[in-house]
Amino acid sequence: MKEITRINHLGLRVKQLDISRAFYEKLGFEFITGPVGPEPVAIMEHPSGVNINFILNADSDCAKNILMDTSAKNTGFTHVALEVTNYESALNEVKKLGIAITGEVEFEGAKFFFIRDPDRNVIEFHQPGARKSG
């Protein structure tokens, strides 16, 4: 569909706004507004333009990610990949913040590492490899 121009926002269901907000602020996101609307929703945005809508209605006793913390391979979005310009710099910054790295991969020149947010949502930091021509 030619009318699609970009991803507008990501919707993440979270348990507690204050905890999620503090975590994402460490990653450079800025609080925009919320809670608003019937769900309710709070909105944060990174200076790069990445926008996250926190859906503030998660069950408080939910302790795992239904897609990633089970042996069943359920359908659904498993993670968000944030592109970075410098893999080593991003990795070191996340480590300095005290955030656990849950995996690192290098594949065909691309490098990426993974973390989990407070609600166990998976975030990938991705530095693309050189594009192959032809």
Automatic annotation (TrEMBL):
PROSITE patterns: VOC (PS51819). InterPro entries: Glyas_Bleomycin-R_OHBP_Dase, Glyas_Fos-R_dOase_dom, VOC_core. SUPFAM superfamilies: Glyoxalase/Bleomycin resistance protein/Dihydroxybiphenyl dioxygenase (SSF54593). GO terms for molecular function: lyase activity. It holds the Pfam family Glyoxalase. Residues 6-128 form the VOC domain. The keyword NAD does not apply. CDD domains: VOC. Keywords: Lyase. This is Lactoylglutathione lyase.
